[in-house]
Design a protein that fits this description.
heterodimer; A: globular; B: mainly beta; globular
Chain lengths: 116, 113
C-alpha cells in the first residue's frame, strides 16, 4: 500500500516552454503533498507543501509564479514549471502523506527534467 | 531556520566492516528522524526511522541512535555488503502528516570488495 506515482518519468523541453508534472497517490487519499527538487549529487530540497483545496506554501527562495502547484484533489497534485530554462533542469520528486500516516511521507519515483 | 548537518559526505569501507553516518539537527521541536537510501536516479527509500521517545532502534544490520540533548543522531550499518553502496540521507521532522522533512546533505557510501 501507499504508492505514489509521477508522470512523466522524464521530459526534455525547449527553453521558454512550460512543463507539467503530475503526482498521484494511487491507493490512499493524500491530505498533504510535497514537492522536492534534487540537483545532481545534492540533497533533496523542499520546494513547497500543498494541502488539498488550498494554496501551496512555498519555501524561501522558490518562485511561486514560476513553479505553479495545484493540489486539486486528494489524489493528484501537479507542478508546472513555467518558461523553463536550462537552470531548471533537475530531478523533481513529490511525496505524499495522509492523516493516518502521522509522520511518514511516501515518495514518488521522480521526474527528470532537461531543458535545452 | 531548520537545518540538518550530515557527515561524512563520502565514506568508503571494506566489505564486512561497519559504516557510521552522523547527523545533527537545529530544530529542538523535531521528534521524528528518518533515514533514506537513494540509488542513482531512484526515489529515496526509507530504511529506518526513530522517534524521540526512544534512544536506539535496530533492524537487522541497521541501527540508529538518538541523543536529543545533544541533537545528534547516527546510522550504523554492520557487516556491510556491496548492495549497501548508495547515497544515504538523514532527515528530521516534527511528527505530523503535514510537517515538512528537512534532509541532510547526504553521504555517498561505497563498499570495497
Amino acid at each position: 500500500g501507499a504508492v505514489v506515482s509521477q508522470h512523466p518519468s522524464w521530459v526534455i523541453c525547449k527553453s521558454g516552454t512550460s512543463v507539467k508534472i503530475e503526482c498521484r497517490s494511487l491507493d490512499f487519499q493524500a491530505t498533504t503533498m510535497f514537492w522536492y527538487r534534487q540537483f545532481p549529487k545534492q540533497s533533496l530540497m523542499l520546494m513547497a507543501t500543498s494541502n488539498e483545496g488550498s494554496k501551496a506554501t512555498y519555501e524561501q527562495g522558490v518562485e511561486k509564479d514560476k513553479f505553479l502547484i495545484n493540489h486539486a484533489s486528494l489524489t493528484l497534485s501537479t507542478l508546472t514549471v513555467t518558461s523553463a530554462h536550462p537552470e531548471d533542469s533537475s530531478f523533481y520528486i513529490c511525496s505524499a502523506s495522509y492523516s493516518g500516516s502521522i509522520d511518514t511521507q511516501y515518495f514518488g519515483p521522480g521526474t527528470r527534467l532537461t531543458v535545452l | 531556520g531548520e537545518n540538518v548537518e550530515q557527515h561524512p559526505s563520502t565514506l568508503s569501507v571494506q566489505e564486512g566492516d561497519s559504516a557510521v553516518i552522523k547527523c545533527t539537527y537545529s530544530d529542538s521541536a523535531s521528534n521524528y528522524f528518518p533515514w533514506y537510501k537513494q540509488e542513482l536516479g531512484k526515489r529515496p527509500q526509507l530504511i529506518i526511522d526513530i522517534r524521540s521517545n526512544v534512544g536506539e532502534k535496530k533492524d537487522q544490520r541497521i541501527a540508529v541512535t538518538l541523543n536529543k540533548t545533544a541533537k545528534h543522531f547516527s546510522l550504523h550499518i554492520t557487516e556491510t555488503q556491496p548492495e549497501d553502496s548508495a547515497v544515504y540521507f538523514c532527515a528530521a521532522s516534527r511528527r505530523s502528516s503535514a510537517s515538512k522533512i528537512i534532509f541532510g546533505s547526504g553521504t555517498r557510501l561505497s563498499i570495497r570488495p
